[in-house]
């Protein structure tokens, strides 16, 4: 018995790519079905994340034209991670495994075959990993690498060079549901689930059309989110820095006292001013980091829904 595979594609203002993406996905899915590798009940689910262009109209047309396609409409824009989660949670009751993929054809569709093979071979989670970053700018490559290192330093278990192109089995999805955080950083949370996992390597292409929905500002916020939602090391780091500074100031005190009793006057102004500024700056930074976490606690305690599904369009034969 071949398994039912759902491909979940979050879409925000993707009218420029949807036709191409849907026809390539249809081709792939139909050929997999014909080869008997996946069940004919497999589907492609587009999640419209509150797009302002014709994205939803295109999805409606696709659903009307082919039973392969399904559409989930969120009540408003909720961001990539939440849109993805909405799709996965809708899919999980109907499929044996779901594959999440970007709408812009940056994730190589051909990697799907290998993901499904690994799933059939007993893996619950299969990560799509970029084998190279040819298409990224130097800046993106550099910052991404630094960021993965930083996350590793913070003790976060994350798959290097993996974005959100992955296959998850039904039971892995059911477990994902029990992660209650409002601010979800899927890349960091999924490895916590466990089970047998594997990787599939692919070359990341350039965006087929349209522009990135992750401008620098959003990317920075996302990066910050990744750290604060998965690690408390920054707060611990503050504590140890504070301790080190305290020890240094004690040493300075002893030094000054010794000099005083030896009769030497302390030419103190410079060192005094410098230390006042240094400690003032550090304190502000520390308060900022702590504030970041308190803000997070505040938002998490509200238990607001991560997304609201307005419509679920699907046709069953
Ligand atoms: N996306 C979304 N909601 C958003 C922003 C992006 O659903 O608020 C989707 C977008 O349509 C795409 C995926 O998330 O399918 C990744 O976005 P994008 O390709 O713009 O990011 P990049 O590849 O540039 O990091
Ligand atoms: Mg992209």
Automatic annotation (TrEMBL):
TM regions (residue ranges): 243-262, 274-294
Keyword Secreted: no
Annotated GO MF terms: glycosyltransferase activity; ribonuclease III activity
Listed Gene3D superfamilies: Spore Coat Polysaccharide Biosynthesis Protein SpsA, Chain A
Enzyme Commission identifier(s): 3.1.26.3
Main location class: membrane
Keywords, comma-separated and alphabetical: Glycosyltransferase, Hydrolase, Membrane, Transferase, Transmembrane, Transmembrane helix
Compartments, as annotated in UniProt: Membrane
Boundaries of every Glycosyltransferase 2-like domain copy: 7-175
Annotated Pfam families: Glycos_transf_2
Membrane topology summary: Multi-pass membrane protein
GO CC terms: plasma membrane
PANTHER family cross-referenced by the UniProt entry: PROPHAGE BACTOPRENOL GLUCOSYL TRANSFERASE HOMOLOG (PTHR48090:SF1), UNDECAPRENYL-PHOSPHATE 4-DEOXY-4-FORMAMIDO-L-ARABINOSE TRANSFERASE-RELATED (PTHR48090)
Protein's name in the database: Glycosyltransferases involved in cell wall biogenesis
Species assigned in the record: Ruminococcus champanellensis (strain DSM 18848 / JCM 17042 / KCTC 15320 / 18P13)
């Amino acid at each position: 018995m071949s398994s039912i595979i759902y491909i979940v594609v979050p879409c925000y203002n993707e009218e420029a790519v949807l036709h191409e993406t849907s026809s390539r996905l249809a081709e792939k899915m139909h050929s997999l079905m014909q080869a008997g590798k996946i069940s004919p009940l497999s589907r492609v689910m587009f999640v419209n994340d509150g797009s302002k262009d014709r994205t939803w109209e295109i999805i409606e047309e696709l659903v009307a034209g082919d039973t392969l396609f399904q559409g989930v409409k969120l009540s408003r824009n909720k961001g990539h991670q939440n849109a993805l989660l909405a799709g996965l949670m809708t899919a999980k009751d109907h499929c044996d495994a779901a594959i999440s993929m970007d709408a812009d054809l940056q994730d190589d569709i051909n990697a799907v075959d290998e993901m499904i093979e690994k799933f059939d071979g007993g893996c619950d989670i299969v990560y799509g990993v970029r084998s190279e970053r040819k298409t990224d700018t130097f800046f993106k490559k550099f910052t991404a690498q630094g960021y993965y290192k930083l996350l590793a330093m913070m003790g976060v278990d994350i798959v290097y060079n993996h974005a959100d192109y992955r296959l998850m089995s039904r039971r892995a999805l059911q477990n994902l549901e029990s992660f209650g955080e409002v601010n979800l950083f899927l890349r960091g949370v999924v490895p916590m689930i466990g089970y047998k996992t594997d990787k599939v390597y692919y070359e990341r292409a350039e965006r087929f059309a349209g522009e990135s929905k992750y401008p620098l500002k959003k990317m920075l916020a996302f990066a910050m989110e990744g750290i604060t939602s998965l690690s408390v090391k920054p707060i611990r780091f503050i504590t140890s820095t504070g301790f080190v500074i305290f020890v240094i100031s004690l040493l300075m005190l002893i030094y000054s006292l010794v000099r005083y009793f030896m009769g030497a006057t302390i030419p103190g102004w410079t060192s005094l001013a410098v230390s006042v500024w240094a400690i003032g700056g550090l304190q502000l930074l520390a308060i900022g980091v702590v504030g970041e976490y308190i803000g997070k606690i505040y938002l998490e305690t509200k238990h607001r829904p991560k997304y609201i599904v307005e419509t679920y369009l699907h046709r069953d034969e």
